[in-house]
Amino acid sequence: MSLRGRDWSWVVLMAVVVIWGGQIFNRVDAAAKDVYSTIARMADDRAEVENAILQYYVEEIDPVKLQLAEIDGMMNELDTFSDFLDEREQESLRETTEGAFGGLGIQIYPVDHYPTVIAPLEGTPAWDVGLQSGDQIIAIEGESTRDEKLDIIVGKLRGVPGTEVTITIKRPGVGEPIDFTITRAEIHINSVGFSGLVWDPTAQDLPLAAAPDWLRDGEDIGYVRLKTFGRGAADEVRAALEQINARNPRGVVLDMRMNPGGLLEEARAVADLFLPRGQMIVSTKGRSRWSEARLYSEREPVLPTNVPLVVLVDEGSASASEIVAGAIQDNDRGLVIGRNTYGKGSVQT
Fold first, then answer.
1. Is the pLDDT of residue 238 over 90?
2. What is the pLDDT of residues 116-139, one digit of tens each?
3. What is the fold, at CATH topology level, of the domain defined by 102-188?
4. Superfamily the domain 192-338 falls into
5. Where are the domains of the chain?
6. Are 149 and 138 in contact (CB under 8 A)?
7. Which are the catalytic amino acids?
8. Which of 248, 205, 241, 215 is nearest to 226 (CA)?
């Protein structure tokens, strides 16, 4: 049986696809083998260096600390938000996002060799003494913090409630360092600091006629102060919005100033409370397929779409705060007002 010209064209096309696909596979496979061979070769070199240090260095070295130092070295080649967490550090992170702890109430990241305040949590000792976003902690109890591992810094700042710690701050625009002696307190992580109406004549002793114009302008305007995105933040915002909705607000203000962020799933859930179903909230991209995702609003909003929405942000608004503010702005759901946000732009898993 002979093949017609049309049949031959299909055969040729399939042959080209197979050959082309095989070449791509071979290239990818060769690249992977080259990476793994490099890693294996470097592992041999690393083991040789480890053995030499452990056997011949003038002082005895803890092998566990040596291994952790190697991991720290790898992390230093990445961005400032990538870190290795041991069991103790994971527990500390869990406390920060889900529980309570004794400390100052600040979120910090390493910037230019020093731990830097992203934002103090409202109502905490750090907030009360006046720590600000951008403050660099250059010393704790007189000891320099330059290039100190973040978990070590956190360990020094946290402690038994009622005890004191002295930190030295370098503040942008201020010439001399500033010392703060701060009394630690039990830090309870409530994501919503305040919610209600800006001006509610029924709940005030001041008669409406006696109120100043700026206060009367706030009548029937809802306000939600979102301090962080800890576990349960979306539930707290939902409860606040439901109470405000019962008062038929003329508009709502979502205040995320000095909000350092938190859990990605809480950011998605909070944005879901304001956006119509099917609107994109955030997309992530990475080198691996599993790191690429698009998150959409999944249900109808708690705040009706005909209620005006204003979002307040500043330089202390980071991470999850930027996700929510960006989703509201990109979907034309509300107006974002304030100063430039922190600009984190990355997600850690």
1. yes
2. 998 888 889 999 999 998 999 999
3. Pdz3 Domain (2.30.42)
4. 2-enoyl-CoA Hydratase; Chain A, domain 1 (3.90.226.10)
5. 5-61, 102-188, 192-338
6. no
7. 319, 330, 344
8. 241
